[in-house]
UniProtKB/TrEMBL annotation:
Species whose genome carries this gene: Solibacillus faecavium
PROSITE patterns: FTHFS_1, FTHFS_2
Record has Magnesium as a keyword: no
Family the UniProt entry places it in: Belongs to the formate--tetrahydrofolate ligase family.
GO molecular function: formate-tetrahydrofolate ligase activity
EC number: 6.3.4.3
Pathway annotation: One-carbon metabolism; tetrahydrofolate interconversion
The protein's name in its UniProt record: Formate--tetrahydrofolate ligase
Binding site for ATP: 69-76
InterPro entries: Formate_THF_ligase, Formate_THF_ligase_CS, P-loop_NTPase
Reactions this protein catalyses: (6S)-5,6,7,8-tetrahydrofolate + formate + ATP = (6R)-10-formyltetrahydrofolate + ADP + phosphate
Gene3D superfamilies linked: Domain 2, N(10)-formyltetrahydrofolate synthetase, Formyltetrahydrofolate synthetase, domain 3, P-loop containing nucleotide triphosphate hydrolases
Pfam families noted in UniProt: FTHFS (PF01268)
């Protein structure tokens, strides 16, 4: 008699089978006043933050990860599972997450709302056009582009040099064909011809502003500071010069309210904003995080990719801007990903390989060092996979013990909050201890000093070199007095270096700064490294090929 192994349910199957509570019930349990809840159907709402009183004093737990690999780490899954585990331990907790972009949803990753029994719901709606926020950001960005070209067409009172316009259009999809385009063709009535290009919406400065603004007033002031290009005399031109910051604020007004949803276990979650961490700052909105800090005692949030990207920007940009100190940092790691960093091909990851695993642990060691460089003590979440062997698990646990790092076996994909109890207990220990958190650099340091600190203390590299283009841009930045801003590195997520193929823990590398772009509205300098693209492309077999709609209208293949 033969036996068959039952195929595990997919994330979307688990999500579709879950029983959600009405969003008003989630809001009531979170002590959100009913008049602050603007329902978007039965299971989603926007929260009017002007009606939320109290002080933002909850402890903040940041979830980050090792350098990501195609093997997967499960950072969002652990974030949700940790929050559910803390709720099981009778803690008042909220999740604060980024919104998914259709770029990775349709590209490589599929859905982006956690996984298994550690998900936020309604998964399908969160992944697709979630409450219109990304539409509003895309529209505001492209309205500014239209207003710039109209200003030039109508006489160009500001003497904008069309060759030096740095503002790009955006779309929330991976579309490499739009990286470089020409606009204004077709004769005088169609505008003034010029070269242009598209970024993905999550790389827009308006997305960054959306996530860093603390109020409508702050939003309008930040929008006014955006540099869109330069005059024929190479003087900067801003949105304030165009006098359109009010119109852009109007487009974004409703979107500025954070979105309330729930986990499978009913933990309240605020999902708002979604900048990528490899080409932007990788954190959800300050408004959502601070709102959650008024409503809960613990806020669990995440930042994109590994600690060299999202966490570095969370700790150097977001926390500094918001004025809070994180109380704990969780680093997600998997046996599979560590073996890949140790040189094992993806096809061979199911085979036990302790030697390669021990080589790959060097990558984890750098991420632990990164968090400690900020004065914080990390907790490792060893995210379990069915192919992990006991020898491999023990190798990582023994390394953690030898290096005095807290570590917890985590199985939230299969068990939900129950599988994160050990992790939650470690986190509770850490957040009740004093923190010595401090940003890595002071704002008054030179741009090159800040860059060197990031490369040496976060990436483990030797230093930086600037291209001639970057040197000219830096000279203009210094001339304009913009050099006292934090740095937002645009770097590959796959390596600690700027070279995607250098896995593990490379050393003695030099990071090349290709361009330095001032983002005065966001309040940072974007430094493009290596071959990083602000408009990604689709893979050969995009996730979209596996997506469909069933006869009952439900989504198929989102994850």
């Amino acid at each position: 008699m033969s036996t068959t192994t039952k195929k595990p349910k997919s994330d979307i199957e688990i999500a579709n089978e879950a029983t959600m509570k009405p969003i008003v019930e989630i809001a009531e349990n979170a002590k959100i006043p009913l008049d602050a809840v603007e329902q978007y159907g039965r299971f989603k709402a926007k929260i009017d933050t002007s009606k939320i009183s109290g002080t933002a004093n909850a402890k903040v737990v940041l979830v980050t990860a090792i350098s990501p690999t195609p093997a997967g780490e499960g950072k969002s899954t652990v974030t949700v599972g940790l929050a559910d585990a803390l709720q099981q331990l009778n803690q008042r907790v909220m999740v604060a997450l980024r919104e998914p972009s259709l770029g990775p949803v349709m590209g490589v990753k599929g859905g982006a709302t956690g996984g298994g029994y550690a998900q936020v719901l309604p998964m399908e709606q969160i992944n697709l056009h979630f409450n219109g926020d990304f539409h509003a950001i895309t529209t505001a960005n492209n309205a500014l582009s239209a207003l710039i070209d109209n200003h030039i067409h109508q006489g160009n009172e500001l003497h904008i040099d069309s060759r030096r316009i740095i503002w790009k259009r955006v779309v929330d999809l991976n579309d490499r064909a739009l990286r470089h385009v020409t606009v204004g063709l077709g004769g005088p009535l169609q505008g003034v011809p010029r070269e242009d290009g598209f970024d993905i919406t999550v790389a827009s400065e308006i997305m960054a502003i959306f996530c860093l603004a603390t109020s409508i007033k702050d939003l309008k002031q930040r929008l006014a500071r955006i540099v869109i290009g330069y005059t024929y005399d190479r003087e900067p031109v801003t949105v304030g010069d165009l006098k359109v910051e009010g119109a852009l604020t109007l487009i974004l007004k409703e979107a500025m309210n954070p979105n309330l949803v729930q986990t499978i276990e009913g933990t309240p979650a605020l999902i708002h904003g979604g900048p990528f961490a490899n080409i932007a700052h990788g954190c959800n909105s300050i408004i959502a995080t601070q709102t959650a800090r008024k409503l809960a005692d613990i806020v669990v949030t995440e930042a994109g990719f590994g600690s060299d990207l999202g966490a570095e920007k969370f700790l150097n940009i977001k926390a500094r801007e918001a004025g809070f100190e994180p109380s704990a940092v969780v680093i997600v790691a998997t046996i599979r990903a560590l073996k890949m960093h140790g040189g094992v091909a993806k096809a061979n990851l199911v085979e036990e390989n302790v030697a390669a695993l021990q080589d790959g642990i060097a990558n984890l060691a750098q991420h632990v060092a990164n968090i400690r460089n900020f004065g914080l003590e990390p907790v490792i979440a060893l995210n379990r996979f069915i192919t992990d062997t006991e020898k491999e698990l023990q190798a990582v646990l023994q390394w953690a013990e030898a290096n005095e790092v807290r570590i917890a076996r985590t199985n939230v994909w299969e068990e939900g909050g129950k599988g994160g109890i050990e992790l939650a207990q470690h986190v509770l220990e850490v957040i009740n201890q004093p923190s010595t958190y401090k940003p890595l650099y002071e704002l008054q340091e030179t741009v090159e000093q800040k860059l060197v600190k990031i490369v040496q203390q976060v990436y483990g590299g030797a230093g930086v070199q600037l291209t001639e283009v970057a040197k000219r841009q830096l000279a203009a930045i210094e001339k304009n007095g913009w050099d006292n801003l934090p740095i937002c590195m645009a770097k590959t997520q796959y390596s600690l270096s700027d070279q995607p193929g250098l896995l593990g823990r490379p050393t003695d590398f030099v990071v090349t700064i290709r361009e330095i772009i001032p983002k005065l509205g966001a309040g940072f300098l974007v430094c493009l490294t290596g071959d990083i693209m602000t408009m990604p492309g689709l893979p050969k077999q995009p996730a979209a090929l596996r997506m469909d709609v069933a006869e009952d209208g439900s989504a198929v293949g989102l994850f």
